[in-house]
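Extended Data, panel c. Modelled sequence:
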Amino acid sequence: MADKSERRPQDSARVTAPRAAEAGELVFKPFVDIFENDREIILIADMPGVAAEDMTVEWRDGQLTIAGRVRPWENAEESDILVEFEMGRYVRHFALPEAIDHDRIEARTTDGALRLVLPKPERALPRSIPVQTG
């Protein structure tokens, strides 16, 4: 895997063979970082250009799907001179362990990064078992 400092979003986020979802629309696979601690799994997805209202997060049958759409920059008072940003969708699927409390999943977006907090249920949390005598 390339060093994060060497990544170029416009090249690295594109699916190896972009597929057309609808009428030539490109589909991108967002980069993610996943972290875990005793209480939760944290997933951060890089989805530049996607507004919160254009993002979806779904949990179904043990599968987490994140998606978002990059909308074109449009202003009736301006005309294009150069356009390098590609329009399309981000989509990524994850098979997650059942040890996720899907009712308490939290999603937040800041500066093009989607942050998901996937809490572990109480029964899955590590605990110390006291040893009794007698």
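Residues 25-72+87-124 form a domain with the Immunoglobulin-like fold (CATH 2.60.40.790). This feature is highlighted in the accompanying rendering.
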